Amino acid sequence: MPGFKMGVVLRNLQKVVPLRRARLRKDVDTLRHILGIHKFDLGIVCVDNHRIQQINKIYRKKNVPTDVLSFPFYEDLRPGKLPCPLHRDELNLGDIFLGVEFVMKQCKEDSLDLHGALAVITAHGICHLLGYRHETEEEWTEMLQKESYILNEYNRLTGRHLEPLMKRCSQDS
Questions:
Q1: Are 97 and 91 contacting, i.e. CB atoms less than 8 angstroms apart?
Q2: CA–CA distance, 170 with 167 (Å, rounded to integer)
Q3: Which of 43, 87, 127, 146 is 20 to 30 A away from residue 28, measured at CA?
Q4: Sign for the pseudo-dihedral over CA of 32, 35, 40, 45
C-alpha cells in the first residue's frame, strides 16, 4: 500500500452546462495534493438543478437547488484530522455533488469563471469530508481559515486568484 495513489471518480450526470472534465480533474488533483489526501478515494458527481434539489430535499429537508453537497465516508472526523483506516476499502473520504447548473447561474450573475468557481466549491466540499462544519460562528471561522489556506496554496501552485465563496456564517451550504 505505501505510495499507492488512489483515485478520483468524476462523473458528469448533467447536460445543461458544458463542462471541461480534464480541467476539473486536474483541479481536484491539485486540491488533493495540497491536503495530502492522495491515498484516499474521492467521488465527484456533477449534477443539474433538478438532481441536486432532489438530493437536498431528501438529505437536508431543503427543497431548493444548491452549489455543493458532501457525503463523508467518516461521519465523526475532527476537523483537520485525517482518518486512520484499518482496511483498504476504508481508504475513502466520501462523495461530493456539485450543482454545476446552480453554480453556472451564480457565475453569470457575478461574472465569475465557472471552472474557478467549481474548484472553490470542491475545496469547500472536501473540507466537509474532512470534518469541517459551519453551523456556528466558531466552526465557520475554522472552516474559512482552512479554505483560505487551501486556496492560497492552490493559487500559488496554479497562478490563479481564487477566493473562498464563504463570506458569512450560513447553514445553507
A1: no
A2: 9
A3: 87
A4: negative
